[in-house]
Amino acid sequence: MRVLFNSRAKHDYLSDALTLLSGWTREGEQIRRTLMIDDTQHAALTERVKVVADALHLRPEISRRADSTQIRVGHGSGEPLTEGEVLLAARIEDAYRAVTEG
């Protein structure tokens, strides 16, 4: 069975999903996360994120600064966040746990 969401319900659904992603902050129509990881973990995380992002046809911004990795997901061009972008953020969290626990 398919469920159709009107734009208001969709917005609420995405907002609810974002509250489950601790550490992510919303900046307009983008979400951002800063991770305190070393260079080796950054490389492993970047590879894992690339695989998921390619499958979702999305391009997150991942950058390395000093001792942290910054990730930004979303278009930033006035387009609202999509379900795919929130899903990507959740998968990034999974990848983060995998590279820091392993």
UniProtKB/TrEMBL annotation:
GO terms for molecular function: 4-alpha-hydroxytetrahydrobiopterin dehydratase activity. Its EC number is 4.2.1.96. It comes from the Bacteria. Pfam families: Pterin_4a. It is an enzyme of class 4 (lyase). It catalyses: (4aS,6R)-4a-hydroxy-L-erythro-5,6,7,8-tetrahydrobiopterin = (6R)-L-erythro-6,7-dihydrobiopterin + H2O. Keywords: Lyase. SUPFAM superfamilies: PCD-like. Belongs to the pterin-4-alpha-carbinolamine dehydratase family. This is Putative pterin-4-alpha-carbinolamine dehydratase.
